[in-house]
User: Which sequence fits this backbone?
C-alpha cells in the first residue's frame, strides 16, 4: 500500500527522530551521504537476479537502459564509496525513503524511510560489528522504543563449516551457492547422502562421452543428434558441464554424520554464549576445525560485552539470515511488538563489495533503522 | 443496457469454441450489426449483455470489475492479475483452449534436462559468457514465480510477445517459457521441454469478477444465467 502523507505533529516527530539519528551517527564518526534515488537496474539484476523485479521498482530510464528506484541504501552507498576509492576505510550515515514492491493485498508500505550506517574497510571486524549493533540499539532507544527483541546470526559459520569439511569440490561449490536458498540447500544435503540417482539414458551417454577418446567430438555428435545447434551456448560449454556432471556422478555419498553435523550446526539457537559453546562442542566431537570462525564469534561477544551488550542474553540463531542473499557473516534483526515487522536490521556483506567492483572482498557491515515503524512501536508501547 | 456484462474473446478459434459452448447450454450469442463490430447479442437470458474483447484484455476487465463474467485462459488470469484469488473466481473449466505453459531449451543442450540443470547452466553461462542467461517469454510473472520456487535465480527475462520459439535460433535469448498445445512447434524449432518444466496446464475458463458491481439486479441475471447453463455462479 502507499503510505499516507506526513504532516502536522507526526511530521514534526518524524523530523525530530531523523535529526536525532543523524546527530547520533555523525557524532560516532559516520559521514553523511545522500545517494540518488535512481541508479542503473543492471547492477541490481546482476546482484539479485530477475527476482528483484518482484521486490523493487525497475522501469525504463530512457535511452534503452532500465533504472531502479532504490530498495535500500547499501548498494548505492557502497557504489559511492567505490567511486572515491575502495582502498581507504570509511563510515557513512544515510537517511531517506526506500521503495519496495509488495505482493498484492499486502499491508506493507511500498515507500518508507530508512536511516542507517555503512562501515567499510574496518581493520577489526568484531569491533565494527559490535559498534554497528550498539549504534542501532542506541538509535532505537533515542526514538523511544522500549521492549524489543534482538536476533543475531552468523553465516560465516556455515560457510566456514562447508570449507572445513572434507568433501568433493563440486559438492562444496553447490552447497555454498545454495546456502541462501534453504529448501534447495537441504535437498542438496539429503541428495548427497542418498547418492546420485540413476541417470537418464541421455545423461548416461553424456557422462560416458567424457571418458571417450575425443570427448568434444563425441559430445558434439550426441548433441547434433538431438537437434540443430542453435543459440549462443557453445559445444565447449556443454563439454565443460559434462565433465562436472561426470565428476558429480562419481562422488561418493556424503557420510550421514557429515550431513547430521551440517544440519545440527544450522539448528543451533539460544543465547549467544551458549550457542558458541554448543558449536565448539559439535565441531570438536566431529573432529572438524572451525577455529577461525568460532574465535571471530568469541571476539565479537567480547567487543559487545565492552559496550554493555550481554552475550548471555543476546539471542543467536545459526539459521538466521539465509533468506537475505548478500549477507555472508554476522547478521541481526530487531523487532518490536509485531515480530513480522522489523524495526531495524543489518549485517556483514564483505563478498558483495567484490561483486560491486572492489576487485576483492573488503570488510563491510551496515545497519538500518525504520524510523516510522520504530516511532509507531514506541507510541504503541 | 443489461444488468450483467459477459466478456468474450472477439476472434479466432477461442471465440468460436466459446460461442459453441454457450449455445450447447441454451445461450445463443451472435454478433450485432456488421461483422467487424465488437458488440454481440445474447438470446436466452434476459438482462445479459455481451461484449467482445481481445482475449488479453479480459483478465484486466475482470480485475477492474468492468465485466461481471468473462472467458479467458487460466494462464492469463494468473499472469495478469496480481493476487488473482482475491479478484476473480474460476467458475467453470470449459474443456477447450488447452495449453501447457512450459520451460523449453534448445534440444541439443544435452546437459540440461531439469530445472536444477538449467540453474547450473545459468551460473556457467555467466562465468563463460560474462552475462546472464536470457529467458524469452511474455509470461513474466509466472516465469519469475516458477523459477523462484525451483531455486533458479541468475537469469534475465527478455520480453517476447510472439514467435517466441524462434528466439534461441535468432540469438535473442537462450531458452524460453511459452504455451504449447501439442509440442510440435517446439520440436520443429529444435526445442525440448525440461522434464520438470511444466509450469501450468491451462484451458479456457468461465470466470467471475469479485470486483464487479454485484447489485441485486446483476445477481438476479447471474442466477437466471446459472440456471440456464446448469452451473453454480454464486
Assistant:
Amino acid at each position: 500500500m502507499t503510505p499516507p502523507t506526513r504532516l502536522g505533529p507526526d511530521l514534526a516527530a518524524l523530523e525530530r527522530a531523523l535529526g536525532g539519528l543523524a546527530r547520533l551517527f555523525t557524532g560516532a564518526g559516520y559521514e553523511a551521504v545522500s545517494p540518488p534515488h535512481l541508479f542503473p537496474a543492471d547492477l541490481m539484476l546482476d546482484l539479485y537476479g530477475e527476482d528483484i523485479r518482484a521486490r523493487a521498482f525497475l522501469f525504463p530510464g530512457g535511452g534503452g537502459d532500465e533504472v531502479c528506484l532504490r530498495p535500500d541504501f547499501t548498494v548505492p552507498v557502497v557504489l559511492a564509496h567505490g567511486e572515491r576509492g575502495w582502498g581507504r576505510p570509511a563510515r557513512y550515515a544515510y537517511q531517506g525513503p526506500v521503495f519496495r514492491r509488495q505482493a498484492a493485498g499486502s499491508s506493507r508500505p511500498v515507500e518508507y524511510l530508512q536511516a542507517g550506517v555503512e562501515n567499510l574497510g574496518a581493520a577489526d571486524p568484531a569491533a565494527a560489528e559490535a559498534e554497528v549493533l550498539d549504534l542501532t540499539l542506541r538509535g532505537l532507544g533515542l526514538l523511544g522504543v522500549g521492549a524489543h527483541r534482538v536476533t543475531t546470526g552468523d553465516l560465516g559459520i556455515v560457510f566456514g563449516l562447508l570449507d572445513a569439511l572434507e568433501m568433493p569440490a563440486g559438492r562444496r561449490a553447490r552447497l555454498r551457492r545454495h546456502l541462501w536458498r534453504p529448501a534447495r540447500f537441504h535437498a542438496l544435503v539429503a541428495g548427497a547422502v542418498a547418492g546420485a540417482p540413476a541417470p537418464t539414458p541421455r545423461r548416461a551417454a553424456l557422462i560416458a562421452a567424457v571418458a571417450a577418446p575425443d570427448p568434444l567430438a563425441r559430445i558434439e555428435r550426441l548433441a547434433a543428434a538431438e537437434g540443430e545447434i542453435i543459440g549462443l551456448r557453445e559445444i565447449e560449454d556443454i563439454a565443460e558441464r559434462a565433465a562436472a556432471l561426470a565428476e558429480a556422478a562419481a562422488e561418493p555419498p556424503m557420510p550421514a554424520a557429515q550431513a547430521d553435523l551440517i544440519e545440527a550446526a544450522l539448528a543451533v539457537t539460544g543465547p549467544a554464549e551458549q550457542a558458541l559453546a554448543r558449536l565448539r562442542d559439535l565441531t570438536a566431537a566431529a573432529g572438524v576445525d572451525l577455529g577461525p570462525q568460532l574465535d571471530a564469534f568469541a571476539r565479537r561477544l567480547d567487543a559487545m560485552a565492552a559496550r554493555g551488550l550481554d552475550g548471555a542474553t543476546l539471542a543467536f540463531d545459526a539459521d538466521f539470515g539465509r533468506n537475505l542473499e548478500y549477507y555472508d557473516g554476522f547478521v541481526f534483526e530487531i523487532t518490536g511488538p509485531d515480530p513480522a515487522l522489523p524495526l531495524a536490521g543489518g549485517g556483514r556483506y564483505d563478498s558483495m563489495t567484490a561483486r560491486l567492483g572492489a576487485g576483492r572482498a573488503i570488510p563491510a557491515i551496515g545497519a538500518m533503522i525504520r524510523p516510522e515503524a520504530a516511532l509507531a512501536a514506541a507510541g504503541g508501547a | 443496457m443489461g444488468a450483467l456484462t459477459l466478456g468474450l474473446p472477439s476472434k479466432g478459434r477461442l471465440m468460436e469454441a466459446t460461442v459453441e459452448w454457450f449455445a450447447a447450454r441454451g445461450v445463443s450469442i451472435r454478433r450485432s450489426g456488421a461483422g467487424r463490430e465488437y458488440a454481440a447479442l445474447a438470446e436466452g437470458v434476459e438482462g445479459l449483455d455481451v461484449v467482445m474483447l481481445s482475449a488479453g484484455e479480459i483478465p484486466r476487465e475482470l480485475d477492474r470489475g468492468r465485466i461481471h463474467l468473462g472467458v479467458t485462459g487460466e494462464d492469463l488470469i494468473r499472469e495478469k492479475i496480481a493476487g488473482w484469488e482475491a479478484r476473480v473466481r474460476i467458475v467453470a473449466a470449459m474443456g477447450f483452449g488447452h495449453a501447457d505453459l512450459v520451460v523449453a531449451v534448445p534440444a541439443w543442450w544435452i546437459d540440461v534436462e531439469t530445472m536444477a540443470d538449467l540453474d547450473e547452466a545459468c551460473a556457467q553461462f555467466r562465468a563463460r559468457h560474462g552475462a546472464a542467461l536470457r529467458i524469452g517469454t511474455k509470461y513474466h510473472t509466472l516465469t519469475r514465480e516458477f523459477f523462484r520456487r525451483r531455486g533458479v535465480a541468475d537469469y534475465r527475462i527478455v520480453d517476447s510477445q510472439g514467435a517466441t520459439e524462434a528466439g534461441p535460433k535468432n540469438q535473442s535469448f537462450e531458452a524460453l517459457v511459452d504455451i504449447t498445445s501439442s509440442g510440435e512447434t517446439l520440436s520443429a524449432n529444435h526445442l525440448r521441454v525440461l522434464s520438470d518444466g511444466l509450469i501450468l496446464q491451462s484451458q479456457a475458463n468461465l470466470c467471475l469478477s469479485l470486483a464487479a458491481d454485484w447489485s441485486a439486479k446483476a445477481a438476479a441475471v447471474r442466477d437466471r444465467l446459472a440456471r440456464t447453463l446448469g452451473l453454480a455462479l454464486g
About this structure: The two ends of chain A are 24 Å apart (CA to CA). Chain A has a mean pLDDT of 93. The interface with chain B takes residues 45-46, 48-51, 53-54, 103-105, 177-178, 181, 183-184, 200, 202-203, 205-206, 219, 222-224, 226-233, 236-238, 240-242, 244-245, 325 of chain A (CB under 8 Å). Residues 91 and 119 of chain A are 5 Å apart (CA to CA).
